[in-house]
Every structure is written in structure tokens, then in C-alpha cells.
Predict the 3D structure of the following.
Amino acid sequence: MRYSDGEKYDKQMDNPYIKLWYEIVEYYLKLYLPEKGLVLDAGGGTGEWSIRVARINKNLRIINCDISKGMLERAQEKIEKLNLHERIENQVCDIMNFPHRDNQFDFVMCLGDSLSFCKDTERAFGELVRVTKPSGRIHISVNTFWGNFVGMIGRGPEQNFYFEDVMKYYETRIIHQNRKSMECRSFSVEELEEMGGRYGLKILKEFAAPVFPVYAEWLKDESKLRKIKEIQYKHCEDRNLLNFGNHINIIYEK
């Protein structure tokens, strides 16, 4: 699976559950972003995270890079509309082969499924580390292996997850649906910890976002939503639950 239509993608992501996901991640960005410097939004697509970072801290400049021109065209439209074009630059590039020099960025983020979609995730991870300055931070989020497994095995053919799809996923960690590969890899917390360890990275924070699936209609009720948020924030760092969340997030320091 690859995203190319930026406007269509933004419409798909415009729902209460995704907004909850964004809110949780932004909470941690506010805690770990540098006071000033250069940020890389790797696989940043339509610029959601670049725009949020620019709003969080006016002293940061951001390069939003993505392999899809269509996604970046949508990002440019949004950035210009918000008058952020002097602080956010869009670049077409591949996470597995950045054009940027070593030790260039103060903060590197690769959020959503960007790393999960890379054919060579080890190489992509190495590139994220390479372009980060010493003592710089790297924020990665990926699909959770067990979270997806539980969801797939519980849904079944009614939602185009056949038994063969579930078994293929279990064996390869690549999501399969309707008997086809979605080309999207999932990870466990332990895998990400090991990857960071191979590069000598220090782990600053681990959390899941969101940590629980939520019935969509409850998110439309303000009183229920407040309670749901309270529970999500209370448990999103729980070590026993990280592998079952929607996305695992790890913030490293180089």
C-alpha cells in the first residue's frame, strides 16, 4: 500500500479516533522537542506533524520529506494557507536513502506508518540515526504486531481478513488483507528496543497511541470522551499494554 492522493488521505484521517491519536502524540512532542533547531519529518506526507511542530515552537524549522509528490503537494497547500512556508520546507526523498548530511538534525520524527512501509526497515532506521545530531532525539512510531494480530483474528472475513491473511501476518509481520499483502510491517516493543541498542541509542520514553481501541460513537460524546482520554493517558505508558496499542512510540536520544 502506498499513499499518493493527499486530499483523499486527509479526509480518511479526519475522524475522532485519529484525532485522539494525534492529541496523545502531540502531548509527548511538546515534552521532547528541542527549544530551537532543525527538525526532520521523515515520511511526513501531507504535513500533519510538521504543522503541529511549527505551531508548538516558533523557533523550530522543519523539513517535511516524503516519497510521494501527491502527498507533498497537499502539504504545500496547507502550509501556505497557514502562512508557515518560511519555516516548513517540503522535499521529495526516500527514507532509506536521505540526501541529507550526517548529524544534520536536532530532532527527527518518523510517525504513523512511514517506517512500517519501508521495504528495508533496518536500513531506514539507520538513516534516521545517521542524520540526527549527537544528543539529538529520534521519535519513531510504528504499527504494533500484537495489536494488529488481535484486531485481525477477531474481525475475520466480514472485514476482509481471511484465515490465510492472519497466518501470513503472524509468520511475516506484514499486514495481509483480502489475501493480498498491504506491504506494511508491524513491530514489537522489544524489536524497536533492540534496533535502538544496535546504534547505541538511549530510550527516553515509550508509549502507545492510542493504547485502546474505542467505540466510535462514544468519541462523539464529550463526557464519554473526557473519561476515555483520562484512561488513555493513564495507561499509555504501561509496559504490559504497549504491544497491544495502535502504534508503539519510542523516543530515543543519540
Summary: The chain has one domain: 6-143+185-253. The chain has a mean pLDDT of 95. The longest helix spans residues 16-32. The beta strands are 37-42, 60-66, 88-92, 105-110, 132-144, 174-177, 180-187, 202-209, 247-253.
